[in-house]
Amino acid sequence: MACIQKTLRGLGVLRQLPRESTVNQTYCRYASSYKYLQVDLDKKTKVAHLTLARKPANSLNCDMMKEIAMATNELDQDRDCKGIIINSCVPNIFSAGLDLTELYQAKELFFQDFWRSLQAMFSTIYGTKVVTMAAIEGHAPAAGCIIALATDYRVMSEGKFNIGLNESMLGIPMNFWVKDAFIATCGQREGERALQLGQMFIPSTALQIGLVDEVVPQELTLPTVQKHMKQWVKVPGGARGLTKSLIRQQAMDNLKAKADEDLLIMTRHMLSQPIQNTIGAYLENMTKKSKR
Ligand SMILES: CCCCC/C=C\CCC/C=C/CC(=O)SCCNC(=O)CCNC(=O)[C@H](O)C(C)(C)COP(=O)(O)OP(=O)(O)OC[C@H]1O[C@@H](n2cnc3c(N)ncnc32)[C@H](O)[C@@H]1OP(=O)(O)O
């Protein structure tokens, strides 16, 4: 979609994307193109599965975020694609959020690339006119939750899983476009509470506050999303897509206009010693936990 490409180029990312739309891609092309994703487009149903595939936890490193943005963009431009289902091939984990090992002691130039890739990943999913849905079959903290928030419909599995934006608890202030996406989904009151407290939610509470649209047994999660997708793609794409743009355009414009400012603020925060210490301690805890 020209509009997404414009935004992405405005953000200064995905320079490697082709300017012209690449139609008539084959099943194979998608399947073999990515290191951290499986992308399969069923030309009959016109629905693609974009499966996060970076073991052990689908933590989002810079390259994976670029791949997600690129794959979404390619599908967005593919006339054979009307819907994208995002899911995970890691049992019980949708995505563990940003790859903290890449954020720890990151050099400024690398961090800038990393953050722009996060902005691009979000805006590409958020801005596509294609229907997007998330099958959240496990944990979805922080940036994992952000991927889900960028879609049109979210189904989460029952179970001892968490979803939410825990940045405050990590000592990191929220940024504007994540806050906006959360409030657009859950409302001002829930946003004020959840974002200040850095709350994580079990599936039933996530459902209550509108962070997810449905909670079902794990084995029914993907089939439920596929069922909804079948309905959504029946709606005439032009009208539905334009309506979606109408609703999301302002947020997209804001992100584009303030992307550099966001980058500056986040660079200052994230590379500051206190936050680096927090990330270091967090990583140490995770290592200790997995050794136990
Ligand atoms: C840095 C914050 C910036 C905030 C800026 C503000 C707004 C911007 C918006 C976007 C920002 C997003 C921020 C983030 O995404 S920060 C990351 C937050 N993520 C978490 O807090 C989750 C951490 N992980 C967990 O809680 C758990 O791993 C789990 C997802 C619940 C799964 O638990 P379990 O099944 O028990 O698996 P393990 O804990 O043993 O993990 C397996 C394996 O994976 C490694 N790992 C897990 N998470 C991460 C990660 N985020 N980054 C890097 N690596 C991760 C873990 O260390 C294990 O590795 P080993 O098997 O090698 O030991």
UniProtKB/TrEMBL annotation:
<dbReference type="GO" id="GO:0005759">
    <property type="term" value="C:mitochondrial matrix"/>
</dbReference>
<keyword id="KW-0276">Fatty acid metabolism</keyword>
<protein>
    <recommendedName>
        <fullName>Enoyl-CoA delta isomerase 1, mitochondrial</fullName>
    </recommendedName>
</protein>
<keyword id="KW-0443">Lipid metabolism</keyword>
<keyword id="KW-0496">Mitochondrion</keyword>
<dbReference type="InterPro" id="IPR018376">
    <property type="entry name" value="Enoyl-CoA_hyd/isom_CS"/>
</dbReference>
<comment type="subunit">
    <text>Homotrimer.</text>
</comment>
<dbReference type="InterPro" id="IPR029045">
    <property type="entry name" value="ClpP/crotonase-like_dom_sf"/>
</dbReference>
<comment type="similarity">
    <text>Belongs to the enoyl-CoA hydratase/isomerase family.</text>
</comment>
<dbReference type="GO" id="GO:0006635">
    <property type="term" value="P:fatty acid beta-oxidation"/>
</dbReference>
<dbReference type="GO" id="GO:0004165">
    <property type="term" value="F:delta(3)-delta(2)-enoyl-CoA isomerase activity"/>
</dbReference>
<comment type="pathway">
    <text>Lipid metabolism; fatty acid beta-oxidation.</text>
</comment>
<keyword id="KW-0413">Isomerase</keyword>
<dbReference type="Pfam" id="PF00378">
    <property type="entry name" value="ECH_1"/>
</dbReference>
<keyword id="KW-0809">Transit peptide</keyword>
<keyword id="KW-0007">Acetylation</keyword>
<dbReference type="InterPro" id="IPR001753">
    <property type="entry name" value="Enoyl-CoA_hydra/iso"/>
</dbReference>
<comment type="function">
    <text>Key enzyme of fatty acid beta-oxidation. Able to isomerize both 3-cis (3Z) and 3-trans (3E) double bonds into the 2-trans (2E) form in a range of enoyl-CoA species, with a preference for (3Z)-enoyl-CoAs over (3E)-enoyl-CoAs. The catalytic efficiency of this enzyme is not affected by the fatty acyl chain length.</text>
</comment>
